[in-house]
Amino acid sequence: MTEQAKPNEQAEQIKQDNPAAEGPANEHADTVELSGEQAIIAKLETELAQAQAKLAEQQDLMLRIKADADNARRRASQDVEKAHKFALEKFAGDLLPVVDNLERALAFINREDEAFSGIIEGVELTMKSFLDTVAKYGVQQIDPQGQPFNPDQHQAMTIQPSADVAPNTVTFVMQKGYELNGRLLRPAMVGVSKAPE
Question: Where are the annotated segments for Disordered (predicted)?
């Protein structure tokens, strides 16, 4: 036992006498430990970058979804508004011949004859009441007599030379036009002037 103890004591003595002999082994252990930490740090940095990229992608997707939802809500609101404004379009269009017939009746009645005065007054009141009622729902009459020709609201049925009015002026109205809340229901049928040759 004492012989075995001697080599151990000698090894201990060598280590104490020469601490540099143990140095390279310790440096190698430190390098291994340090490179292991760097690998973990590099892995964590990669995972962090991936997580940040995914977060940015999710935020972008969320913003797109929110914008799509806002656009859908806005379109739905506009559709509802248009439905309210123009729900009566077909109905109002079907009523226009009634006004036309009342106007024709007034045009053909002899206003000179006293016997027709009551009829004239009744038809005029009926027509005024009718126009006032449809005006409450956004139907407006277009009567462009003497105004400049507007192709968005007028339909030229004839063009006649005239020295009395400026060229491109509505000289007579064959049939009045109508619009519903700014949307044309029917263009006014008109005669338009042009410069005399």
Answer: 1-33
Render pLDDT for 157-185 as a digit per residue (tens, 0 to 9). 999 998 888 999 999 999 999 999 888 99
> Range of 68's domain?
20-84
Distance CA 154, CA 184 (A): 10
Whether residue 184 is found in the same domain as residue 114: yes
CA 55 to chain centre: 30
103 and 187 share one domain: yes
pLDDT in tens, 16-63: 555 444 444 455 555 656 677 888 888 999 999 999 999 999 999 999
What total of structural domains would you count in the chain? Answer: 2
